[in-house]
Amino acid sequence: MTTLQNREAAPARPLGGTLIEQFELGLDAPICLTWELTYACNLECAHCLSSSGRRDPRELSTEQCEAVIDELQRMQVFYVNIGGGEPTIRPDFWHLLEYAVNHQVGVKFSTNGVRLDAERAAFLASPACNGYVDVQISLDGATAEVNDYVRGPGSYDTALRALANLQDAGFKDAKISVVCTRQNIGQLDEFKALADRFGATLRLTRLRPSGRGADVWDELHPLPHQQRELYDWLMAHGENVLTGDSFFHLAAFGESLPGLNLCGAGRVVCLIDPIGDVYACPFAIHDNFLAGNLLDEGGFQRVWQTSALFTELRSPQTGGACSSCQFFDSCRGGCMAAKFFTGLPLDGPDPECVQGYGEQALAGPREIPAASQDHSKANPTRNQPVMLTLSRRPDELSLPAAPPVSACAENPLAGFDPASLDTLPGGCGCSAGGTGKACC
Amino acid sequence: MLDQAWQLSPAVALRPEPFGALAYHFGNRRLTFLRRPELVRVVTALAECDDVRSALLEAGVPEPQWAAYAAALDSLAQADMIRPREGAA
User: Fold this and answer.
1) B19 Cα to chain A: minimum distance (Å)
2) Any idea where the Radical SAM core domain is (chain A) (predicted)?
3) At A351, is the secondary structure helix, strand, or coil?
4) Does A19 touch chain B (CB under 8 A)?
5) pLDDT at B89
6) What kind and span of H or E run contains A206?
7) Cβ-nearest to B16 among A22, A28, A78
8) What is A46-85 written as a DSSP string?
9) Domain boundary assignment for chain B
10) C-alpha to C-alpha distances, A167 to A83, A87, A173, A190, B4, nearest whole angstrom
């Protein structure tokens, strides 16, 4: 996508209406944006939505990052979510953190905890961060077994060690960020207990079929009855649990969940990736949702305010196939990225539509879009999750007739047993069988 | 409240938006939306006016709406977005 050369004369913007209606028309600057500092990561989570692993050689330099922070300060973006990859493995991460805080740009950063030793935890709790830094530790299982299955061996221990370090240093109110999956929906109470144990706040977000998530979405996304379980749990505990407002598709169950029930892509949120590309949302790293690059003339402000893609996202959208559904006003058709990466039309139902329209759509003809980039490690390392579990042979598979032949047996007749032909006439298969005549 | 002197809390920044403004409190990190340009004018005028009444006059708010504006200012005060001005009556 390219940016417009000149900003077209925008139609007069209607005032009044609900806040949601105003948000859908876009803001002069994002309320909050996600900034991924690097594609490099020590882990290789199976569902990584940015397909991270290897650093991109074009990643922004320290000076370029400082310039981005300066611009965010000018635009009065009061808060950024920093992520990756694993942002803390950038050598200048701690410098940039302090730089942002000193320029009135608050930071919440997401980490797997690998660099949060006692010393860093003390720094985060110190006046240098001025209480203006939030730390979010990713954990996708309340037990090592469930977590490490998707995040890789040892990642549970790393996360818990980081949480303990933060608590010991006196850092208040860390966040435990959980991507809800088929395997961990049943652990919601355990997650809450874990958060309470560390004086942390629980944050639950939706699994998106973005990045490597596309490869495992079929296996990991919550089943319909689990969506209900999640909704009921959030209705009961929602006030004390963060969600990044990511479950607005569940609003079609009835009562809306707390938070913004709207897709904020390109309207109130966006994503800056490690090379300065600006995408509509953190879950839509794909050429179709690329609005421009902040290194080009006009910087981030021009991309945000005048790019063709964002202008389009802020124009009135049609509900398409969903507009006749009585719940459309609640869920607004669900998540754009979830639809796109499962090959569904953007003006149709969400693949996890709780009214069941998603399943119907998924059963129809669709083509899953090819990824437009991949920073996954070229070769697997020992941190790669192995998504295999021990299980019994499914009953529906019948037993093989005989054990397999050894791989070393090179004879083309390996495994052939002439005796198996005994049931045939003559034992050798020829027509002379058993009549006393000479056979072949 | 109409006779009191108020001001924007020192920890709050106002960001103009097409619908009004976004108020961000750096201390408690709360975000509030001022959904009318007139309310933004009132809040901005508070610091230079002797009392809320003159700020409302300066912002051109018609008198029948003053009670509604006072209620809006009251909820902003509860979120520490605006504070009573010290040393004033």
Assistant:
1) 6
2) 27-240
3) coil
4) yes
5) 47
6) strand A201-206
7) A28
8) TT-TT--BS--TTPPPHHHHHHHHHHHHHTT--EEEEEES
9) 6-84
10) 21, 21, 9, 19, 44
A409 CB neighbour count, 10 Å cutoff = 11
Beta carbons of A352 and A338 less than 8 angstroms apart: yes
**Which residues between 62 and 81 in chain A have a beta carbon less than 8 angstroms from any beta carbon of chain B?**
76, 78-79
Angle, in degrees to the nearest 10, between helices A299-306 and A62-74: 50
Give me the CATH topology for the region B6-84: Outer Surface Protein A; domain 3 (3.90.930)
Cβ pairs bridging A and B (under 8 Å): 38
Q: What is the ipTM of this complex?
A: 0.89
Question: Which residues of B touch chain A, with CB atoms under 8 Å apart?
Answer: 13, 15-19, 22, 24, 26, 29, 31, 33, 35, 37
Share of chain B above pLDDT 70, in %: 97
Share of chain A above pLDDT 70, in %: 91
Residue A293: name the closest of A316, A312, A315, A270 by CA: A270
Cα distance between residue A318 and residue A361, in whole Å: 18
CA distance A142 to A402: 43
Comparison of pLDDT for A255 and A28, the residue scoring more: A28
Distances from the Cα of A115 to the Cαs of A171, A187, A392, B26, in angstroms?
15, 27, 40, 27
Cβ(A333)–Cβ(A345) under 8 Å?
A: no
Nearest residue of chain B to residue A105 (CA atoms): B26
